[in-house]
Amino acid sequence: MDKVVFQTLGCEGGKQIGIATLNVEKALNALDLDMVRLLKAQLEAWREQDEIVCVVLDGAGEKAFCAGGDVRAITEASRANPGEIAPEAQTFFTEEYQLDYLIHTLGKPVMVWGDGIVMGGGLGLMAGASHRVVTQTSRIAMPEVTIGLYPDVGGSFFLNRMPGRTGLFLGLTGYNMNGADALYVDLANFAIDRDNKESLWDALAEVHWQDDANTNHDLLSQALNGFSDDNIADNSRLKAHQARIDELMAGSLADIHSCLSALDDDHLQERGEAWLGRARDTFLAGSPLSWNLIEAQMQLGTEMELADCFRMELGWSVNCCAHGDFCEGVRALLLDKDRNPQWQFASLEAVTQEAMDKLMTSPWDEASHPLNTL
Protein backbone atom coordinates (compact mmCIF):
# COMPACT_ATOMS: atom_id res chain seq x y z
CA MET A 1 0.00 0.00 0.00
CA ASP A 2 1.32 3.44 -0.92
CA LYS A 3 1.57 5.69 2.13
CA VAL A 4 0.92 8.70 -0.09
CA VAL A 5 -1.15 8.40 -3.27
CA PHE A 6 -0.33 10.86 -6.06
CA GLN A 7 -2.82 11.60 -8.83
CA THR A 8 -3.45 14.34 -11.36
CA LEU A 9 -6.84 15.81 -12.15
CA GLY A 10 -7.26 16.83 -15.77
CA CYS A 11 -8.74 20.28 -16.28
CA GLU A 12 -10.09 22.46 -19.07
CA GLY A 13 -7.43 23.51 -21.57
CA GLY A 14 -5.06 20.63 -20.76
CA LYS A 15 -3.93 21.93 -17.36
CA GLN A 16 -3.68 19.58 -14.38
CA ILE A 17 -4.08 19.67 -10.61
CA GLY A 18 -1.68 17.52 -8.59
CA ILE A 19 -3.43 15.71 -5.73
CA ALA A 20 -1.45 14.11 -2.89
CA THR A 21 -3.49 11.95 -0.50
CA LEU A 22 -1.99 10.83 2.81
CA ASN A 23 -2.94 7.17 2.88
CA VAL A 24 -2.41 5.59 6.29
CA GLU A 25 -5.99 5.78 7.48
CA LYS A 26 -5.52 3.43 10.46
CA ALA A 27 -2.85 5.77 11.83
CA LEU A 28 -5.03 8.83 11.12
CA ASN A 29 -2.60 9.69 8.32
CA ALA A 30 0.20 10.54 10.75
CA LEU A 31 3.38 11.54 8.93
CA ASP A 32 6.45 9.35 9.02
CA LEU A 33 9.80 10.00 7.33
CA ASP A 34 8.87 8.01 4.21
CA MET A 35 5.76 10.13 3.71
CA VAL A 36 7.68 13.36 4.25
CA ARG A 37 10.21 12.32 1.60
CA LEU A 38 7.54 11.22 -0.88
CA LEU A 39 5.63 14.49 -0.49
CA LYS A 40 8.72 16.68 -0.77
CA ALA A 41 9.97 14.97 -3.93
CA GLN A 42 6.57 15.12 -5.64
CA LEU A 43 5.89 18.74 -4.69
CA GLU A 44 9.29 19.75 -6.02
CA ALA A 45 8.53 17.92 -9.28
CA TRP A 46 5.09 19.49 -9.61
CA ARG A 47 6.56 22.94 -8.95
CA GLU A 48 8.66 22.60 -12.11
CA GLN A 49 5.90 21.19 -14.35
CA ASP A 50 4.13 23.94 -16.29
CA GLU A 51 0.97 21.89 -16.79
CA ILE A 52 0.48 21.56 -13.01
CA VAL A 53 -1.38 24.70 -11.96
CA CYS A 54 -2.35 23.81 -8.42
CA VAL A 55 -1.55 21.26 -5.71
CA VAL A 56 -4.10 19.69 -3.35
CA LEU A 57 -3.23 17.87 -0.12
CA ASP A 58 -5.87 15.49 1.20
CA GLY A 59 -6.18 12.65 3.72
CA ALA A 60 -7.65 9.19 3.23
CA GLY A 61 -10.76 8.20 5.15
CA GLU A 62 -13.38 10.11 7.09
CA LYS A 63 -11.55 10.79 10.35
CA ALA A 64 -8.43 12.83 9.69
CA PHE A 65 -6.42 14.89 7.27
CA CYS A 66 -3.33 14.25 9.41
CA ALA A 67 -3.16 13.63 13.16
CA GLY A 68 0.50 14.65 13.49
CA GLY A 69 3.92 13.13 13.11
CA ASP A 70 4.70 9.48 13.80
CA VAL A 71 7.01 10.09 16.74
CA ARG A 72 7.59 6.51 17.86
CA ALA A 73 10.76 5.94 15.84
CA ILE A 74 12.23 9.25 17.03
CA THR A 75 11.44 8.36 20.62
CA GLU A 76 12.95 4.88 20.43
CA ALA A 77 16.16 6.22 18.87
CA SER A 78 16.41 9.03 21.42
CA ARG A 79 15.84 6.67 24.36
CA ALA A 80 18.63 4.46 23.03
CA ASN A 81 21.01 7.45 23.05
CA PRO A 82 20.16 9.37 26.25
CA GLY A 83 21.59 12.87 26.41
CA GLU A 84 22.62 12.79 22.75
CA ILE A 85 20.91 14.07 19.62
CA ALA A 86 19.80 10.92 17.82
CA PRO A 87 20.44 11.05 14.06
CA GLU A 88 16.87 9.80 13.52
CA ALA A 89 15.45 12.78 15.39
CA GLN A 90 17.60 15.28 13.52
CA THR A 91 16.75 13.71 10.17
CA PHE A 92 12.99 13.58 10.75
CA PHE A 93 12.60 17.12 12.02
CA THR A 94 14.98 18.52 9.40
CA GLU A 95 13.12 16.94 6.50
CA GLU A 96 9.68 17.67 7.98
CA TYR A 97 10.52 21.36 8.30
CA GLN A 98 11.97 21.41 4.76
CA LEU A 99 8.64 20.05 3.52
CA ASP A 100 6.65 22.60 5.52
CA TYR A 101 8.83 25.43 4.21
CA LEU A 102 8.40 24.15 0.65
CA ILE A 103 4.61 24.33 1.02
CA HIS A 104 4.85 27.90 2.35
CA THR A 105 7.02 28.95 -0.60
CA LEU A 106 5.86 26.75 -3.49
CA GLY A 107 4.55 29.71 -5.49
CA LYS A 108 1.74 27.75 -7.11
CA PRO A 109 -1.52 27.64 -5.16
CA VAL A 110 -1.63 24.85 -2.58
CA MET A 111 -4.96 23.74 -1.13
CA VAL A 112 -5.33 21.59 1.97
CA TRP A 113 -8.62 19.79 2.55
CA GLY A 114 -8.51 20.05 6.35
CA ASP A 115 -11.39 17.69 7.13
CA GLY A 116 -11.49 15.80 10.43
CA ILE A 117 -8.46 15.78 12.72
CA VAL A 118 -5.60 18.17 11.90
CA MET A 119 -2.98 18.15 14.63
CA GLY A 120 0.71 18.85 15.12
CA GLY A 121 2.57 17.87 11.95
CA GLY A 122 -0.71 17.94 10.03
CA LEU A 123 -1.11 21.57 10.96
CA GLY A 124 2.44 22.15 9.73
CA LEU A 125 1.28 21.04 6.28
CA MET A 126 -1.93 23.05 6.46
CA ALA A 127 -0.45 26.28 7.80
CA GLY A 128 1.84 26.63 4.80
CA ALA A 129 -0.89 26.23 2.19
CA SER A 130 -2.28 29.26 0.39
CA HIS A 131 -5.84 27.84 0.52
CA ARG A 132 -6.75 26.15 3.80
CA VAL A 133 -10.20 24.55 3.85
CA VAL A 134 -12.08 23.48 6.97
CA THR A 135 -15.34 21.55 7.20
CA GLN A 136 -17.97 20.93 9.87
CA THR A 137 -15.86 18.03 11.21
CA SER A 138 -12.49 19.81 11.39
CA ARG A 139 -10.77 19.46 14.76
CA ILE A 140 -7.51 21.35 14.83
CA ALA A 141 -4.98 21.47 17.65
CA MET A 142 -1.34 21.67 18.65
CA PRO A 143 -1.25 19.50 21.81
CA GLU A 144 2.54 19.18 21.99
CA VAL A 145 2.59 20.40 25.61
CA THR A 146 1.29 16.94 26.56
CA ILE A 147 4.32 15.18 25.06
CA GLY A 148 7.07 17.47 26.28
CA LEU A 149 7.40 19.37 23.03
CA TYR A 150 6.01 22.76 21.94
CA PRO A 151 4.06 23.93 18.84
CA ASP A 152 6.76 23.44 16.20
CA VAL A 153 6.28 23.04 12.40
CA GLY A 154 6.31 26.84 12.07
CA GLY A 155 4.25 27.61 15.16
CA SER A 156 6.82 30.25 16.12
CA PHE A 157 5.75 32.10 12.97
CA PHE A 158 1.97 31.69 12.89
CA LEU A 159 1.01 31.59 16.58
CA ASN A 160 2.43 35.08 17.11
CA ARG A 161 0.19 36.45 14.37
CA MET A 162 -3.07 35.42 16.01
CA PRO A 163 -5.49 37.82 17.77
CA GLY A 164 -4.58 38.93 21.28
CA ARG A 165 -3.11 36.16 23.43
CA THR A 166 -4.79 33.36 21.49
CA GLY A 167 -1.53 31.86 20.22
CA LEU A 168 -0.24 31.46 23.77
CA PHE A 169 -3.57 29.95 24.85
CA LEU A 170 -3.53 27.41 22.02
CA GLY A 171 0.07 26.44 22.74
CA LEU A 172 -0.31 26.03 26.49
CA THR A 173 -3.69 24.29 26.51
CA GLY A 174 -3.74 22.28 23.26
CA TYR A 175 -7.27 23.63 22.76
CA ASN A 176 -9.26 21.76 20.12
CA MET A 177 -10.44 24.24 17.48
CA ASN A 178 -13.41 23.81 15.18
CA GLY A 179 -13.52 25.23 11.66
CA ALA A 180 -14.78 28.63 12.80
CA ASP A 181 -11.97 28.93 15.35
CA ALA A 182 -9.40 28.09 12.67
CA LEU A 183 -10.85 30.78 10.41
CA TYR A 184 -10.73 33.30 13.26
CA VAL A 185 -7.02 32.72 13.95
CA ASP A 186 -6.18 32.48 10.20
CA LEU A 187 -5.19 28.82 10.20
CA ALA A 188 -7.98 28.40 7.65
CA ASN A 189 -9.39 30.74 5.04
CA PHE A 190 -12.29 28.76 3.49
CA ALA A 191 -15.18 26.77 5.03
CA ILE A 192 -16.94 24.15 2.92
CA ASP A 193 -19.42 21.37 3.76
CA ARG A 194 -17.57 18.05 3.59
CA ASP A 195 -20.45 16.59 1.54
CA ASN A 196 -19.57 19.00 -1.27
CA LYS A 197 -16.07 17.60 -1.75
CA GLU A 198 -16.75 15.72 -4.99
CA SER A 199 -18.68 18.67 -6.41
CA LEU A 200 -15.73 20.91 -5.58
CA TRP A 201 -13.33 18.55 -7.36
CA ASP A 202 -15.62 18.65 -10.43
CA ALA A 203 -15.69 22.44 -10.30
CA LEU A 204 -11.91 22.66 -10.08
CA ALA A 205 -11.62 20.52 -13.21
CA GLU A 206 -13.76 23.05 -15.08
CA VAL A 207 -11.71 26.11 -14.14
CA HIS A 208 -9.91 27.75 -17.06
CA TRP A 209 -6.50 27.80 -15.42
CA GLN A 210 -3.81 30.12 -16.73
CA ASP A 211 -0.02 30.09 -16.96
CA ASP A 212 0.32 32.79 -14.30
CA ALA A 213 0.49 31.59 -10.67
CA ASN A 214 -1.05 34.77 -9.24
CA THR A 215 -4.02 34.46 -11.58
CA ASN A 216 -4.42 30.82 -10.58
CA HIS A 217 -4.43 31.78 -6.90
CA ASP A 218 -7.38 34.05 -7.63
CA LEU A 219 -9.14 31.41 -9.72
CA LEU A 220 -8.83 28.85 -6.93
CA SER A 221 -10.18 31.36 -4.41
CA GLN A 222 -13.17 32.07 -6.65
CA ALA A 223 -13.90 28.37 -7.01
CA LEU A 224 -13.71 27.78 -3.25
CA ASN A 225 -15.84 30.83 -2.48
CA GLY A 226 -18.55 29.30 -4.65
CA PHE A 227 -18.89 26.53 -2.04
CA SER A 228 -18.54 28.71 1.06
CA ASP A 229 -20.67 27.62 4.04
CA ASP A 230 -21.44 30.35 6.58
CA ASN A 231 -22.84 27.81 9.06
CA ILE A 232 -19.35 26.41 9.55
CA ALA A 233 -17.79 29.86 9.85
CA ASP A 234 -20.15 31.36 12.42
CA ASN A 235 -19.53 29.58 15.74
CA SER A 236 -16.04 30.42 16.94
CA ARG A 237 -15.68 30.01 20.68
CA LEU A 238 -12.26 31.64 20.52
CA LYS A 239 -13.74 34.75 18.93
CA ALA A 240 -16.65 34.91 21.37
CA HIS A 241 -14.35 34.57 24.38
CA GLN A 242 -11.32 36.53 23.19
CA ALA A 243 -11.42 38.92 26.15
CA ARG A 244 -11.59 36.03 28.62
CA ILE A 245 -8.66 34.28 26.95
CA ASP A 246 -6.58 37.46 27.06
CA GLU A 247 -7.43 37.81 30.75
CA LEU A 248 -6.35 34.24 31.55
CA MET A 249 -3.14 34.59 29.54
CA ALA A 250 -2.07 37.93 31.03
CA GLY A 251 1.11 38.47 33.01
CA SER A 252 3.94 36.06 33.71
CA LEU A 253 3.88 32.30 33.26
CA ALA A 254 3.44 32.03 37.04
CA ASP A 255 0.41 34.34 36.81
CA ILE A 256 -1.06 32.23 34.01
CA HIS A 257 -0.44 29.01 35.96
CA SER A 258 -2.16 30.53 38.98
CA CYS A 259 -5.14 31.73 36.92
CA LEU A 260 -5.71 28.41 35.18
CA SER A 261 -5.19 26.38 38.37
CA ALA A 262 -7.84 28.46 40.13
CA LEU A 263 -10.56 27.72 37.57
CA ASP A 264 -13.34 25.89 39.38
CA ASP A 265 -15.61 23.49 37.50
CA ASP A 266 -18.81 24.61 39.21
CA HIS A 267 -17.99 28.25 38.60
CA LEU A 268 -17.13 27.56 34.97
CA GLN A 269 -20.43 25.74 34.56
CA GLU A 270 -22.32 28.73 35.96
CA ARG A 271 -20.56 31.07 33.55
CA GLY A 272 -21.12 28.83 30.53
CA GLU A 273 -17.37 28.20 30.32
CA ALA A 274 -17.19 24.46 30.95
CA TRP A 275 -14.94 24.18 27.87
CA LEU A 276 -12.20 25.97 29.81
CA GLY A 277 -12.02 23.04 32.23
CA ARG A 278 -10.54 20.80 29.57
CA ALA A 279 -8.08 23.52 28.52
CA ARG A 280 -7.01 23.87 32.16
CA ASP A 281 -6.59 20.11 32.59
CA THR A 282 -4.49 19.74 29.44
CA PHE A 283 -2.25 22.59 30.54
CA LEU A 284 -1.76 21.23 34.06
CA ALA A 285 -0.95 17.76 32.70
CA GLY A 286 1.72 19.21 30.43
CA SER A 287 5.47 19.46 30.85
CA PRO A 288 6.78 22.44 32.86
CA LEU A 289 9.69 22.59 30.41
CA SER A 290 7.18 22.87 27.58
CA TRP A 291 5.34 25.67 29.36
CA ASN A 292 8.55 27.66 29.43
CA LEU A 293 9.41 26.93 25.81
CA ILE A 294 5.94 27.99 24.68
CA GLU A 295 6.17 31.21 26.65
CA ALA A 296 9.58 31.91 25.10
CA GLN A 297 8.13 31.18 21.67
CA MET A 298 5.43 33.79 22.24
CA GLN A 299 8.05 36.43 23.06
CA LEU A 300 9.40 36.29 19.50
CA GLY A 301 6.78 38.61 18.05
CA THR A 302 6.46 38.89 14.28
CA GLU A 303 9.94 40.05 13.33
CA MET A 304 11.56 36.66 12.61
CA GLU A 305 11.58 35.43 9.03
CA LEU A 306 9.87 32.10 8.40
CA ALA A 307 13.17 30.34 7.59
CA ASP A 308 14.71 31.60 10.83
CA CYS A 309 11.72 30.27 12.77
CA PHE A 310 12.24 26.81 11.30
CA ARG A 311 15.99 26.94 12.00
CA MET A 312 15.35 27.89 15.62
CA GLU A 313 12.67 25.22 16.02
CA LEU A 314 14.96 22.49 14.69
CA GLY A 315 17.42 23.16 17.49
CA TRP A 316 14.67 23.27 20.11
CA SER A 317 13.06 20.05 18.84
CA VAL A 318 16.17 17.89 18.77
CA ASN A 319 17.13 19.27 22.18
CA CYS A 320 13.70 18.30 23.53
CA CYS A 321 14.43 14.74 22.39
CA ALA A 322 17.95 14.66 23.83
CA HIS A 323 17.61 16.72 27.00
CA GLY A 324 13.93 17.51 27.53
CA ASP A 325 10.69 15.72 28.33
CA PHE A 326 9.77 14.54 24.84
CA CYS A 327 10.64 10.86 25.23
CA GLU A 328 8.85 10.61 28.58
CA GLY A 329 5.81 12.41 27.21
CA VAL A 330 5.55 10.09 24.21
CA ARG A 331 6.05 7.07 26.46
CA ALA A 332 3.24 8.07 28.79
CA LEU A 333 0.75 9.15 26.13
CA LEU A 334 1.43 6.95 23.12
CA LEU A 335 3.62 3.97 24.04
CA ASP A 336 2.75 2.72 27.54
CA LYS A 337 -0.40 4.87 27.55
CA ASP A 338 -0.42 5.17 31.35
CA ARG A 339 -0.95 8.95 31.06
CA ASN A 340 1.35 9.39 34.02
CA PRO A 341 4.47 11.17 32.75
CA GLN A 342 7.31 11.71 35.17
CA TRP A 343 8.47 15.13 34.02
CA GLN A 344 12.02 16.24 34.86
CA PHE A 345 10.62 19.09 36.93
CA ALA A 346 7.54 18.54 39.07
CA SER A 347 6.48 22.18 39.09
CA LEU A 348 6.91 25.47 37.29
CA GLU A 349 9.05 26.84 40.15
CA ALA A 350 11.44 23.88 39.95
CA VAL A 351 12.49 24.52 36.33
CA THR A 352 16.07 25.81 36.20
CA GLN A 353 17.51 28.39 33.84
CA GLU A 354 20.28 25.90 33.08
CA ALA A 355 17.73 23.39 31.78
CA MET A 356 16.05 26.03 29.61
CA ASP A 357 19.37 27.23 28.21
CA LYS A 358 20.21 23.66 27.24
CA LEU A 359 16.93 23.33 25.34
CA MET A 360 17.14 26.71 23.62
CA THR A 361 20.80 26.70 22.56
CA SER A 362 21.32 25.59 18.98
CA PRO A 363 23.55 22.52 18.55
CA TRP A 364 24.96 24.06 15.34
CA ASP A 365 26.57 27.26 14.16
CA GLU A 366 25.21 29.07 11.13
CA ALA A 367 27.48 27.30 8.63
CA SER A 368 26.72 23.77 9.86
CA HIS A 369 22.99 24.21 10.43
CA PRO A 370 20.98 21.48 8.61
CA LEU A 371 18.49 24.12 7.42
CA ASN A 372 21.02 26.74 6.30
CA THR A 373 19.81 26.52 2.69
CA LEU A 374 16.21 27.55 3.41
Automatic annotation (TrEMBL):
<protein>
    <recommendedName>
        <fullName>3-hydroxyisobutyryl-CoA hydrolase</fullName>
        <ecNumber>3.1.2.4</ecNumber>
    </recommendedName>
</protein>
<dbReference type="Pfam" id="PF16113">
    <property type="entry name" value="ECH_2"/>
</dbReference>
<keyword id="KW-0378">Hydrolase</keyword>
<feature type="domain" description="Enoyl-CoA hydratase/isomerase">
    <location>
        <begin position="17"/>
        <end position="359"/>
    </location>
</feature>
<dbReference type="InterPro" id="IPR029045">
    <property type="entry name" value="ClpP/crotonase-like_dom_sf"/>
</dbReference>
<dbReference type="InterPro" id="IPR032259">
    <property type="entry name" value="HIBYL-CoA-H"/>
</dbReference>
<dbReference type="InterPro" id="IPR045004">
    <property type="entry name" value="ECH_dom"/>
</dbReference>
<dbReference type="GO" id="GO:0016787">
    <property type="term" value="F:hydrolase activity"/>
</dbReference>
